[in-house]
């Protein structure tokens, strides 16, 4: 009889598991269907399209090209950069590495599938973790649904993938920690920590903090325990996780050095900003850039603080302090800035508190004073936040309603219907989730747009013009297509000048923005955009343009379907030898128009040799814009230029922009070249308050079209210059090209240089101290040429040139990983011997 009862109980539990797991699988699938219905993809137009699918696709192409899983140099991005500048986007993500075995699957399809599977895994693993001897199935299920419906998880499964794609490994680490505490086996814990770091090193900081808090809150202090005893306890509990960190040193060390060299600066935080409590609700509620929960989460967090001494009390108090004081936000963000995204890794701990809360209510263990205290504290925090921060009126009303519903549901749960609070919380979150998906549609990529951007004809056209590493090829389309193509590499050897990454070569970025003053078409300061500047395209060696249009100076030479191929034969090779040299000191005294013109006839080097007298090449002319104050909708106008020259020339234009409506971007296009000043509230404000333009002007042409974007802004201090370059000097400058071909594992560039009279090797590869230059087998010092690129003086004769890139910290990182493997092996042997009684 007892056996039958046990079998019946087991069957009931199995049915519950099947039901709950089915729901946890169905919810992400429904959300995916809602996102993709009516011709959409589950990915955003900017970051997903421009970063999260193209970087993994490039890494895969690079693997096929070089055969190595450990590349060091990305020749195809941003002129050629340290590949660890882009490690954040999945360089060693174990799930992306699996795609290397699936070349027949498009990366966009693969990434969408992985995102859905990760979303499903979040719910299943959370359910397993919470139900693994901690809570009953029902409470574990409710808390797991809370994770699956969290705005941060649903939003970033289609937006910023790295914000949430580590979550399955974090949950596995929590499961692994429990397993280690139970039976001493730590393999799952160590491997999960390693995979979490390799998947998203940035959010692994918060993930490791969550793991530490989870374990530390379970520590039971016994009377008489010494400080040394506590240290030993913590060491024993966490050294397996530390081993996972040490195993990732081959990745973390070069990433650290790349970040140190290439991360753009951020405003320093004052001590007051870091220490004064910050009661902003979006850290915890609603926002996809915070945890993305409902008011019920705040109430259960506050209620947990009033529990008697237990694990949940300490966990809630710790999370409360983390959310309250900005210094923790700053530390979790790597001491870079204050961003709510750093709290997303603590979602599993909130799920733990939720499961405990539901269990206490369901078991009638929640005391009235605990519930009242939690609701009062939550109400005070909501009121203070609403009074001290700015929220739209509709959001304020929703917060009040959400609070009232949750408080009432708690009262009902305590005295009548036990499931009221869980039902209310999940209903609110489901409603928010559906609303979020509806709003998200505006940011998603359509299948039609993806087909245009990813047309096979573009790939065929790009491949048809690849003939070595001497020149670059870029793809063009409309504004949205250009943004999508900033990191899009169709064929290895394409060698883009564009890049969109949180880390980039600082010399190259400075060259674009401070030396040449290139236009800034996008609102994001991290984007090194596609530009139409004819001088920049020439000195960077962009010979081929593939797409629907090309800047002035290019001629159509071929066509694949609807895709045109344009060519400019007069651009610089990617490397050449010249004796036409100007000192950097003299060059930097020139105005920005004169700098651009000077670079068409001379190279700039850090030499002390005297230069010829610099001739003024750009003459200031009268220019007039048809409008100086724009208020309202977009409009068209004319720029008049005093140009009576009988030859084609370059027009250089600049003017200041004052944005009277700071919450809106300002956009002005001159002769098709666009500049944008981002709104003050932009995440990466571009500070582009002075617009610069460079374009070709035909002989006698004195009118240029202008497109004014909508908004309320003023244009002032309009200045224009006209200049002409000596075509013979330009041809002479590029007269001795050097073809540097990629060799080895993609981190070697080699070729033959011919120096007739002795001169300088000049490249358009951004300067990086990690390069080693070998001339005829002898190592030579690399120099900076043209203020931002690699070069070196050469003696007369024919030379074999070899550039070798060695990412800083890679060797030390590999050594650290090997040492960690040795420690791991020794510990495994020690544990086995102890198990068999040999120690």
Automatic annotation (TrEMBL):
| Pfam families assigned | YfhO (PF09586)
Q: Which InterPro entries match?
A: Uncharacterised_YfhO
Keyword terms, alphabetized = Membrane, Transmembrane, Transmembrane helix
Top-level lineage group? Bacteria
Membrane-spanning ranges: 18-34, 142-166, 186-217, 238-259, 284-307, 314-336, 342-359, 371-391, 397-417, 424-440
Q: Which PANTHER family match?
A: INTEGRAL MEMBRANE PROTEIN (PTHR38454:SF1), INTEGRAL MEMBRANE PROTEIN-RELATED (PTHR38454)
Q: What is this protein called?
A: YfhO family protein
The organism of origin for this protein: Extibacter muris
């Amino acid at each position: 009889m007892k056996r039958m009862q046990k079998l019946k109980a087991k069957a009931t539990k199995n049915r519950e598991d099947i039901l709950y797991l089915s729901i946890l699988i169905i919810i992400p699938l429904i959300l995916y269907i809602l996102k993709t219905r009516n011709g959409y993809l589950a990915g955003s137009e900017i970051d997903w399209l421009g970063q999260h699918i193209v970087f993994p696709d490039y890494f895969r192409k690079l693997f096929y090209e070089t055969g190595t899983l450990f590349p060091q140099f990305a020749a195809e991005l941003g002129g050629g950069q340290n590949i660890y500048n882009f490690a954040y986007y999945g360089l060693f993500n174990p799930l992306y590495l699996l795609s290397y075995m699936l070349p027949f699957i498009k990366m966009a399809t693969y990434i969408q599938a992985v995102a859905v599977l990760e979303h499903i895994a979040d719910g299943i693993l959370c359910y397993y973790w919470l139900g693994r001897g901690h809570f009953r199935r029902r409470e574990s299920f409710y808390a797991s649904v809370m994770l699956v419906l969290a705005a941060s998880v649903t939003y970033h499964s289609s937006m910023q993938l790295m914000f949430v794609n580590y979550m399955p490994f974090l949950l596995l680490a929590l499961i692994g920690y429990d397993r280690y505490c139970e039976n001493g086996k730590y393999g799952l814990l160590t491997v999960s920590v390693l995979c979490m770091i390799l998947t998203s090193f940035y959010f692994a900081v918060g993930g490791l903090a969550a793991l530490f808090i989870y374990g530390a809150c379970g520590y039971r202090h016994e009377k008489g325990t010494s400080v040394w005893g506590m240290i030993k306890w913590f060491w024993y509990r966490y050294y397996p996780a530390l081993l996972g960190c040490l195993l990732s040193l081959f990745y973390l060390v070069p990433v650290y050095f790349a970040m140190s060299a290439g991360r753009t600066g951020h405003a320093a935080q004052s001590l007051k900003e870091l220490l004064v409590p910050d009661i902003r609700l979006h850290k915890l509620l609603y926002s996809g850039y915070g945890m993305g929960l409902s008011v019920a989460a705040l109430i259960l967090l506050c209620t947990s603080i009033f529990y008697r001494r237990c694990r949940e009390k300490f966990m809630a108090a710790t999370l409360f302090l983390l959310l309250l004081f900005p210094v923790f936000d700053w530390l979790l963000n790597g001491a870079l800035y204050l961003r709510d995204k750093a709290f997303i890794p603590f979602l599993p701990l909130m799920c733990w508190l939720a499961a405990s809360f539901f269990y206490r209510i369901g078991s009638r263990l929640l005391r009235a004073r605990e519930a009242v205290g939690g609701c009062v504290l939550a109400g005070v925090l909501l009121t203070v936040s609403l009074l001290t921060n700015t929220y739209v009126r509709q959001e304020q009303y929703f917060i009040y309603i959400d609070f009232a519903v949750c408080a009432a549901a708690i009262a009902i749960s305590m005295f009548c219907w036990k499931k009221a609070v869980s039902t209310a919380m999940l209903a609110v979150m489901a409603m928010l989730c559906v609303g979020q998906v509806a709003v998200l549609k505006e940011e998603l990529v359509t299948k039609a747009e993806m087909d245009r951007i990813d047309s096979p004809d573009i790939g065929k056209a790009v491949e048809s013009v690849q003939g070595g590493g001497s020149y670059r090829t870029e793809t063009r389309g409309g504004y949205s297509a250009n943004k999508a193509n900033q990191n899009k590499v169709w064929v290895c050897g394409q060698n883009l000048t564009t890049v969109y990454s949180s880390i980039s070569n600082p010399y190259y970025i400075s060259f674009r923005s401070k030396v040449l003053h290139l236009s800034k078409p996008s609102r994001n300061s991290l984007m090194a955009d596609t530009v139409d500047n004819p001088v920049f395209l020439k000195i960077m060696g962009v010979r081929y343009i593939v797409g629907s249009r090309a800047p002035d100076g290019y001629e159509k030479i071929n066509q694949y379907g609807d895709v045109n191929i344009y060519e400019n034969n007069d651009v610089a090779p990617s490397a050449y030898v010249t004796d036409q040299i100007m000192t950097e000191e003299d060059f930097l005294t020139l105005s920005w128009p004169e700098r651009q013109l000077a670079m068409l006839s001379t190279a700039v080097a850090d030499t002390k040799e005297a230069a010829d007298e610099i001739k003024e090449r750009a003459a200031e002319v009268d220019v007039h814009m048809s409008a100086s104050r724009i208020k309202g909708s977009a409009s068209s106008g004319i720029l008049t230029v005093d140009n009576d020259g009988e030859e084609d020339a370059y027009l250089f234009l600049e003017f200041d922009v004052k944005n009277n409506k700071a919450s809106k971007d300002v956009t002005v296009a001159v002769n098709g070249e666009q500049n944008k000043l981002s709104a003050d509230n932009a995440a990466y404000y571009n500070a582009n308050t002075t617009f610069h333009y460079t374009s070709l002007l035909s002989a006698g042409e004195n009118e240029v079209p202008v497109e004014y974007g909508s908004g309320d802004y003023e244009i002032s201090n309009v200045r224009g210059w006209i200049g002409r370059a000596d075509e013979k000097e330009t041809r002479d400058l590029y007269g001795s090209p050097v073809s540097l071909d990629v060799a080895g594992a993609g981190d070697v560039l080699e070729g033959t240089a011919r120096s007739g009279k002795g001169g300088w090797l000049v490249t358009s590869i951004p300067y990086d101290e990690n390069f080693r230059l070998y001339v005829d087998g002898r190592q030579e010092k690399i120099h900076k040429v043209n203020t931002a690129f690699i070069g070196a003086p050469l003696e007369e004769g024919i030379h074999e040139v070899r550039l070798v890139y060695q990412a800083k910290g890679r060797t030390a990182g590999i050594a650290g990983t090997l040492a960690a493997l040795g420690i791991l092996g020794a510990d495994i042997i020690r544990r086995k011997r102890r198990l068999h009684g040999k120690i």
